[in-house]
Design brief:
Layout (H helix, E strand, L loop, with lengths): L5 H14 L9 H8 L3 H13 L3 E7 L7 E6 L5 E7 L3 E7 L5 E8 L7 H17 L9 E7 L3 E3 L4 E5 L4 E4 L1 H8 L4 E4 L1 H12 L11 E6 L3 E7 L2 E2 L30 H5 L1 H11 L11 H13 L3 H25 L3 E5 L1 H6 L1 H14 L2 H6 L1 E4 L6 H14 L3
Parallel strand pairs: 3-6, 6-10, 11-14, 14-15
Antiparallel strand pairs: 1-2, 3-4, 4-5, 7-8, 8-9, 11-12, 12-13
This protein binds zinc ion.
Length: 399
């Protein structure tokens, strides 16, 4: 284990205290002490630092049991602002948040599949950031403390480099240095799985549970992956690539995967696989919109809700490999909570979980299966930009 200096520990404590307030929570010093397992005096010291930095404010005092009134604290709204960017293969979404992590603006632009030149893509990101700031009356770039950009694929956070983004054929693209040539806002990079997992920890299902320390957040989209919270910490691994569940092998020498391997989870449960399954069930299905994953999945989900036999059969076939791959995650990580999110999951909602749960049970060991709760993500807005804004806040605002 890497040694940590006392300054690092104090900062880590401030991060943990701040995280307990996200999502508009109002807490006393005693509540924070209980959540973090520290003394009220320690919680009080950290809260004092955060209040002095203008991040927390007292809202009211409550008197319980006739004792001294306990001050209620909450995050302070307003400036400085943070921008979270979800850069994906098909779009750039930039969203702006105030320091209490309330979303106050949204800007979106499409990225053409052929538009893979790094300079051009970075240009779209900068345009989107400028667009979302310009859309907020009375706010300028001077009010923005920093930007968090989520990039698909493998990201070197310290070096600011996109190590590998397979869909664009990027290898070693110096994203941060290209960015700073065009925009002087402080910027950090990460991978969407990490952003989504942070958002779920603080604003989703996991954030609502006391002592929620072991959580797996599954992202189902064109690509698939998962985020791991183990013993209360986001697991990054040695090279920030922990959670590449989509490229673990589900079927020996199975279907080819765009990563170059065969039999990967993603080849069976990515959105493209869902379209292939629909084609197998009914090659002439009117639900199929060739070349358009989002439109096909939306039609399929709507048809599944009205028990259309082709849609139900497709969903059942999809649930087999998905349930098996989730059971692998349950057996390997022994989570208390397994959240299923991503745009494919959001399109189907509960019928997907209902189809998958018996398969997870069938392929999980009994003890970890009995310990886990499966839940659909409740975060309605974009969790990637939210998680990236949280990281930007913790990096550029939190003392
Ligand atoms: Zn793969």
């Amino acid at each position: 284990m890497r040694p940590r200096l006392s300054g690092d520990l104090r900062r880590a404590n401030r991060v943990e205290v701040m995280r307990s307030f996200y999502g508009g929570r109002t807490l006393t010093r005693g509540d924070v002490a209980a959540q973090l397992g520290v003394s009220v005096a320690t919680a009080g010291t950290i809260i004092g630092e955060l209040t002095a930095a203008g991040l927390l404010a007292e809202t009211q005092s409550t008197r319980s049991g006739g004792g001294r009134p306990a001050s209620q604290l909450t995050m302070r709204a307003g400036a400085p602002y943070l921008v979270g960017v979800d850069l994906a293969e098909t779009h750039v979404i930039a969203e702006i948040f105030d320091q209490a992590m309330t979303r106050v603006g949204h800007f979106q632009m499409p990225v053409a599949p052929t538009d893979d030149d790094p300079d051009s893509v970075v240009g779209h990101v900068v345009d989107s950031i400028q667009g979302v700031i310009a859309g907020l009356a009375g706010v300028s770039a001077a009010d923005v403390a920093g930007v968090g950009v989520s990039l698909p694929g493998q990201v070197d956070r310290e070096g600011g480099v996109s190590v590998h983004a397979p869909n664009w054929g990027w290898h070693g693209v110096p994203f941060t240095s290209l960015f700073t040539k065009r925009c002087d806002l402080p910027v950090l990079l990460d991978n969407p799985l990490k952003a989504i997992t942070l958002a779920e920890m603080m604003f989703g299902e996991a954030g609502d549970r006391d002592n929620q320390t072991d959580t797996v957040v599954v992202n189902l989209g064109t690509g698939v992956g998962l985020g791991i919270v183990a013993e209360g910490r986001l697991l990054r691994g040695r090279t920030n690539s922990a959670g590449e569940w989509g490229h673990t092998v589900l079927v020996a020498d199975g279907l080819p995967c765009h990563c170059g391997s065969r039999g990967c989870v993603e080849a069976y449960v990515g959105a493209a696989a869902l379209l292939d399954l629909l084609t197998e069930v009914d090659p002439d299905s009117p639900l199929l919109v060739p070349g358009d994953q989002a439109a096909t999945v939306a039609r399929l989900a709507e048809a599944a809700r009205r028990a259309d036999p082709v849609a139900v059969a497709t969903l059942e076939r999809f649930a087999r490999p998905l349930g098996m791959a989730l059971a692998n995650a349950v057996n390997m990580l022994n989570p208390e909570l397994l959240v299923v999110g991503g745009w494919v999951s959001a399109a189907f909602g509960e019928p997907l979980l209902a189809a998958v749960e018996p398969v997870v049970k069938e392929f999980s060991l009994t003890v970890p299966y009995d310990a886990v709760t499966l839940a659909a993500s409740r975060i309605a807005d974009n969790p990637v930009s939210l998680g990236m804004a949280v990281l930007a806040f913790e990096t550029f605002v939190l003392p």
